[in-house]
Amino acid sequence: MNLSLKPGREKSLLRLHPWVFASAFQTPDVSIASGSTVSLVDANGQFLARASYSPHSQIRARVWTFNDEEVDKEFFRRRIKAALNSRRRLQLDGQGDAQRLIHGESDGIPGLIVDRYADVLVLQSLTAGTEFWKQTFADLLVEETGVQIIYERSDADVRELEGLQPITGSLRGELHTSRFTIQEHGLKFNVDVQHGHKTGFYLDQRENRRRVGELSKDRDMLNCFCYTGGFSIHALANGARSVLSVDSSADALTLLEENLRLNNLPAERHTSMEGDVFQLLRRFRDEARSFDVIVLDPPKFAPTSAHAEKAARAYKDINLLAFKLLRAGGILVTFSCSGGVDATLFQKIVASAALDAGVDAVIIEHLSQGVDHPVSLHFPEGAYLKGLVCVKK
Ligand code: SAH
After folding, report:
1. CA-to-CA distance for 312 and 297, rounded, in angstroms?
2. Is beta strand 149-154 parallel, antiparallel or unpaired with respect to 120-125?
3. Pocket-testing residue among 207, 225, 373, ligand 1, by greatest number of atoms within 8 A of Cβ
4. How far, in Å, is the centroid of ligand 1 from the Cα of 249?
5. CB of 55 closer than 6 A to ligand 1?
6. Which domain holds residue 6?
């Protein structure tokens, strides 16, 4: 089926951006089957792209290909093979046995996330188009990776925007346990693929955890929003003097304790604290506590730019408090994974937090998501994780 865009609305497609908004269509037809493949043409009937149609979403179509080619199982086999080959070329084996194999738009499959945890794949289908082809993806993943177990974690909130219900469960094979032990830079982590956040682990922070570990030797660290202790475990393994890990999730802290034991790390140097970071930072300030390294890795405060202002206040609040708790010469490692807050805005927020805290600091490193979470040049929205390493003067 050919769908025409309004005059001028082909521009973003000509720049190879894969999203087409409802307002770009001459007639935004809601009767077309969810996820089915349509051909997009410009106002003169010229072919632009082949895309999946999502009748309930503001992002009404997502491009599979800008070429006039068939979209079928073999098409997706080529895309999946390309993604797997690019990971092989990255030579990540030395970093462990967990990595992102398919990263949505940037791997040419908008809406599909596939993470590998040792011998299990976890698949997240986020859009009408990926839902339509899900069983094909599962077959192809088994054929191309040889992995027999695929667990589905399609329970992200964004599915609502596509008119899709949350779905979790085995897609191929059976999970005999929800806990898997993975390796990351020589350290072990238990990952709960059924109940953990996202697909179970924050793979995008792998490189940053290693780096922060290096920076934490002989230091007192405060790890805020610690989840299952990624930064804490790396810090302790690198000889941190003490680590205080804070999270609001008791389940995450239980896994953190398991991870400490798995790696035979000195429990006496570590403290877990269940609570709200916003409140605890205030309490620590009132108690005049101080640290050499503070990590702030909060959840997504602004999924889209519509939430940017509220998110900015939250980022400023925690960064301001963290600067106050930092000793002179101390290091603040601060992240934002909000799509709605770009790198420039994030840096401005951190700068104004330092100013209001009465602190001078320098940025010594800019951090981002790991190399297995690539960013297509044509899809800048893919660059969601921003991190700054600041040293307090
Ligand atoms: N740094 C972690 C990932 C952090 S994800 C890693 O490397 O694995 C964000 C975490 O923030 C989640 O574990 C979530 O439970 C926690 N969280 C969300 N809001 C919180 C709050 N207000 N106070 C404390 N923890 C919170």
Report:
1. 14
2. parallel
3. 225
4. 8
5. no
6. 2-65
350 with 218, same domain?
yes
Taking only the tens place, the pLDDT of each residue in 18-52 is 999 999 999 877 789 999 999 999 999 999 999 99
Distance in Å, CA 132 to ligand 1 centroid? 32
Q: Is 337 an active-site residue? A: yes
Asked if residue 304 and residue 157 are part of one domain, the reply reads no
| Domain-ending residue, one of 65, 94, 113 | 65
The 10s digit of each residue's pLDDT in 196-225 is 999 999 999 999 999 999 999 999 999 999
231 CB less than 6 Å from ligand 1?
Answer: yes
pLDDT, one tens digit per residue, over 312-342 is 999 999 999 999 999 999 999 999 999 999 9
Q: pTM score > 0.90 for this model?
A: yes
Buried-state track 26-40, b at ≥16 Cβ within 10 A, e below 16: eebeeebebbebbeb
Same domain as 208, residue 155: no
Q: Check: CB of residue 303 under 8 Å from CB of residue 338.
A: yes
Whole-number Å distance, alpha carbon 296 to ligand 1 midpoint, is: 9
Question: What confidence tens digit (pLDDT) does each residue in 90-125 have?
Answer: 989 889 999 999 999 999 999 999 999 999 999 999
- What is the CATH number for 92? 3.30.750.80
Q: Which atom of ligand 1 is nearest to the CA of 201?
A: 8
* Same domain, residue pair 280 and 140: no
Q: Measuring CA to CA, which residue among 277, 283, 284, 260 is closest to residue 225? A: 277
